[in-house]
Amino acid sequence: MNQLNRPVVLGHRGASYGRLDNSRAAFAAVRPAGGDGAELDVRATQDGILAVVHDPIVKGYGAIAENSYAELSQAAGGELIRIEEALEILDGQIVDIEIKSEPKEVGWVPSELTSRLLGRFLQSYSGKCDIFVTSFSEAALEAFHKVASGYRLGLLTAIGEDVPERCKAAKGLGAAYILPHHSSLDRNAIEGAHDADLQVYTWTVDVASRIAELASFGVDGVITNRIDLALAALGANID
């Protein structure tokens, strides 16, 4: 367990319950809600800007990878933000940056452009956020690590995937974290990951009883839409 004596609580795309996810408002609300930090998503625009956005398209406009940041931001009503701005808002907090890189998605770039751009950006990052970098894609993490080897990596696992097998893949990448969906976790899976020297952060869990159960199994971090509910389930004092 970390120095908090409870699992780390990260807001899923910020403190997104009741707010637009991956937005200024969602990130600004993390600290007041008592969260330890946030999970967020990055994608590269056509002109090489790292936009904080989950979906591969701006609805009603077009693909993130096929349009400029200015065009996409205007289409999104000014709500699309850059990674620089998100980290400024989250100053000093824990941040899980998820690289979005799925071959099945529109605008996917085989050269792992998002990974390489994020690596270059973080090489010169001088802020105070405690950052680790995650992805479902092993190729994305490998490409990132070639550019910025000093950052901790985490391998996400899809719903229903075999956690022990993904732990082997994570270790092959030199990762420090495994991030399974909470439905894939039980005590044995968490203990197995710990035996492999991997921290276990789970997504996305919003049920108090399940959060408490995962904590009893020894989970290291919880990614949630409900920071308030998670902290209450963990018996945390919220000022």
Short descriptors:
globular; 34% helix; two-stranded antiparallel ribbon; alpha/beta; eight-stranded parallel β-barrel; TIM Barrel; 21% strand; 239 residues; 10 helices
Brief description of this entry?
The chain has 239 residues and is α/β, with parallel strands linked by helices.
Number of strands: 12
Assigned CATH class: Alpha Beta
Average pLDDT score: 96
Number of domains: 1
Strand order within the widest beta sheet:
1-2-7-8-9-10-11-12
Radius of gyration: 17 Å
Largest sheet: 8 strands, parallel, barrel
CATH fourth-tier homologous superfamily: Phosphatidylinositol (PI) phosphodiesterase
Topology, please?
Blueprint: E1 8-12, H1 24-28, H2 30-33, E2 37-44, E3 50-52, E4 57-58, E5 62-63, H3 69-75, E6 81-82, H4 83-89, E7 94-99, H5 113-123, E8 130-135, H6 138-147, E9 152-156, H7 163-173, E10 177-179, H8 187-195, E11 199-202, H9 208-217, E12 221-224, H10 227-233
Parallel strand pairs: 1-2, 1-12, 2-7, 7-8, 8-9, 9-10, 10-11, 11-12
Antiparallel strand pairs: 2-3, 3-6, 4-5
Helix pairs in contact: 5-6, 9-10
Give a verbal description of the structure.
- With 239 residues, this protein is an alpha/beta fold.
- The chain has one domain: Alpha-Beta Barrel (TIM Barrel).
- Helices cover 34% and strands 21% of the residues.
- The protein is built from 10 helices and 12 strands.
- The strands form 2 sheets. The chain has an 8-stranded parallel barrel with strand order 1-2-7-8-9-10-11-12, surrounded by 5 helices. A two-stranded antiparallel sheet has the order 4-5.
- α5 packs parallel to α6.
- The two termini are 22 Å apart.
